[in-house]
């Protein structure tokens, strides 16, 4: 692998281009690590790519082999595994079940249930998600810690 840095004072934004003979797991991992330095994720919807700011994301869920990233008004796909995504997200993203992560800054309420999953609702949207009993105590603690800091 060859790494080069080219300084060009005429460009407006820094660009990182990966030239490869094929896209394999190492290339995908490299792309994800580079993206982790940004405050956005590159997501897919209807065959197009979108750059979505992390603060717009309210929750992320996995269904089968697919990862879905939810904003207040939309839903996108992300090509990765949940644990890989969890590793590049900032601390305000908290796991609430084996298949879901929430943005603590977007949570408006948690309705706890003794016998089943707890309901998490978000600010300025109708979207909701359930937290498992296994994760809810730690998630609730982290969410309310963040709320008290803001």
How would you describe the overall organization of this protein?
The chain is an alpha+beta fold and 150 residues long. It has a single domain (25-149), classed as LytTr DNA-binding domain (OB fold (Dihydrolipoamide Acetyltransferase, E2P), Beta Barrel). Helix content is 23%, strand content 35%. The chain has helices at residues 25-35, 82-88, 133-149, and strands at residues 40-45, 48-53, 57-63, 66-71, 75-78, 93-97, 100-103, 107-111, 118-122, 128-131. Strands 5-4-3-7-6 form a 5-stranded antiparallel sheet. Strands 8-9-10 form a 3-stranded antiparallel sheet. Strands 1-2 form a two-stranded antiparallel ribbon. It is elongated and about 55 Å long.
Question: What's the Cα radius of gyration?
Answer: 18 Å
- The CATH superfamily appears as LytTr DNA-binding domain
What is the name of the CATH class?
Mainly Beta
Extended strand count: 10
Counting helices, strands and paired strands, the structural category is alpha+beta
The number of helical elements comes to 3
Q: What's the shape?
A: elongated
**Unreliable sequence segments:** none
- The share of residues in extended strands comes to 25-35%
Helix-strand string: HEEEEEHEEEEEH
Mean pLDDT comes to 90
How many domain units? 1
Q: Biggest sheet, open or closed, and with what strands and sense?
A: 5 strands, antiparallel
Distance between the termini: 44 Å
Write down the CATH topology.
OB fold (Dihydrolipoamide Acetyltransferase, E2P)
Which CATH architecture is right?
Beta Barrel
- Helicity, in percent? 10-25%
Spatial arrangement of strands, main beta sheet? 5-4-3-7-6
């Amino acid at each position: 692998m060859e790494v080069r840095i080219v300084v060009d004072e005429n460009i407006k934004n820094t660009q990182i281009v990966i030239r490869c003979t094929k896209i394999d797991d190492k290339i995908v991992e490299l792309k994800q690590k580079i993206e982790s330095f940004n405050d956005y994720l590159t997501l897919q919807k209807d065959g197009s790519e979108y750059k979505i700011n992390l603060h717009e994301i309210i929750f992320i869920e996995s269904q089968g082999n697919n990862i879905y990233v939810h904003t207040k008004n939309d839903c996108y796909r992300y090509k990765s595994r949940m644990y890989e995504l969890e590793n590049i997200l900032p601390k305000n993203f908290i796991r609430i079940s084996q298949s879901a992560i929430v943005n603590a800054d977007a949570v408006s309420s948690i309705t706890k249930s003794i016998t089943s999953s707890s309901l998490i609702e978000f600010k300025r949207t109708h979207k909701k998600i359930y937290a498992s009993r296994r994760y809810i105590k730690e998630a609730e603690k982290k969410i309310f810690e963040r709320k008290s800091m803001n």
